[in-house]
Amino acid sequence: MIRPAACLFDLDGLLLDxxxxxxxxxxxxxxxxxxxxxxxxxxxxxxxxxxxxxWQVIAWIxxxxxxxxxxxxxxxxxxxxxxxxxxxxPAMEGAPELLARCRELxxxxxxxxxxxxxAVALKCAPHAWLELLEIRVHGDDPxxxxxxxxxxxxxxxxxxxxVEPAGCWAFEDSQAGTExxxxxxxxxxxxxxxxxxxxxxxxxxxxxxxxQEVRL
Length: 216
Ligand SMILES: [Mg+2]
Fold this sequence. Notes:
alpha/beta, Rossmann fold, DNA polymerase, domain 1, 2 domains, globular, binds magnesium ion
């Protein structure tokens, strides 16, 4: 069996089941400005940085003909809701076991997330198993130029691990994250969100219904 040179993991919706909580926070915040976000819009927000999402939601508010808030005003509503909800996010099925298996096989690992360092600390605090991920690229990493869907985060993580991106397995759940990992040249595994099929991804992507399906 050919083993990866390293495994690069997304956080939200991949290792931790935070996406329903992020979705609730964005929906409530947008609702405060008169727009009811649907499930397809919430899927579009997945995997991207907070500020990029704020601009997207502002564009939707403007498109509805309503008076849009500034990003600062929108985040002043969204962030307290997110901060209250996120520490209760559970592990995704099979996530702690997959990290433990990588450690057992001495496969280097890194976290590649759009979340800020502060948000990651908040979400990871109840999950000691995530401490296995020592190398981390955060959304507000000073060395990161562009967030997902740009490839920068995965390239930066591979560089920090001293491996080529082409030898890495990237694990993602979002469209933006998958685009980023493919553009970086990684071998991409997508954990499919509910209601999303594998046909929306290029053929080289390996689709997963659960992290328990990963064989190492
Ligand atoms: Mg994700």
